[in-house]
Amino acid sequence: MKQATRALRALTTKQRGLAAASLLALGCYCQVAVASEALEHGSSLQGGGLDRDAGEHEAHSLQHFNNHHRELCTWQSSYKEPSSYHYAVEKIGYPTEYELLVSKNQYIEDVACPVCGAEHQTVGFVGKNLREEGKCPICQSFNRLRQIAEALLPEAQRIAGRPFGSMKDLALSELAVYNTQCAGPLHTTLLGMPGYACSEYISSELAPGTTVRTTRHEDLQHTSFSNATFDLIISSEVLDHIPRPYQAHKELRRILKPGGSHIFTVPFSPTDLHDQVRASVEGGRLVHHIGPPIYAGDPLHQKGALLFTIFGQEMVDNICLLDYNVTTHRLHVGPHGILGNNAWVFVATKG
């Protein structure tokens, strides 16, 4: 066991993912440390508090299931080309006709929103960051949130056995959905869903599951939910604000039902092999490795949410080692208002 672990740690990220997948196929039990030392330490913080369990090292077991032929999972296998992005650019390249229209007019017409289902909408793109632009005039969803919906709806169809035209349509179903945010267009659209739950990270002083002014507090590294609770989990630009993101992935897998999926976006650099760890928590102390610190707006924390990690290809390999099947989507669906060359969405499915 120890020899296998040491051997895997000595490999490159690409080799480690391929080796781990091979071990799964052979039914070999071993333990692999999937995060760097900076990420294995850390806090339960999404905003500004420190984890009482900081400093503990964790290894994640690779599970082998008898008589279960599992697809080998690596970054290479997760990204199945051609993607909708490649279909969009294969004739004229990038920018496509949609980016050219935005450059000329700052809007596109006849958009069908996969969040609220509204059709024939005119959507404006007034800033340079297309990923965060393009609000639907009906539900206010923007490009990145429509990307989440575009990747989520096929997963919902797979689980429920019937198609969904939009997130609004999904809200009428009996699926159990957990949103890691309690605000925004996705939350508003799903709020009346019978099996819907949401949470925010409020304070390190609170126990998971505590309700503060109608908002549920959860630490995604240690939630209060029971095993196998949810069919679908949504997180958008959340895991990059957690010191130990792979512990959060492990925890989210615990609360997913078998066959359930976590659909998520994070800051992602597809040309980088390794994660860029900008900050970590070591011995209960916040340490900045790369400056200056980057904070994202957060209505619950005045200073904002600190960006701990910008993810690279090894993210997918590390999630695969937690016994997920991962699909990497690079999207470009102009008729749905999904534009740009940075529309990366990840789907991690519990085996």
UniProtKB/TrEMBL annotation:
GO molecular function ontology, one term from the record: S-adenosylmethionine-dependent methyltransferase activity
Signal sequence extent: 1-35
Domain Methyltransferase type per the UniProt entry, residue ranges: 214-264
Keyword list, A-Z: Signal
Superkingdom field: Eukaryota
Keyword Signal: yes
InterPro entries named among the record's database cross-references: Methyltransf_11, SAM-dependent_MTases_sf
Protein name (record): Methyltransferase type 11 domain-containing protein
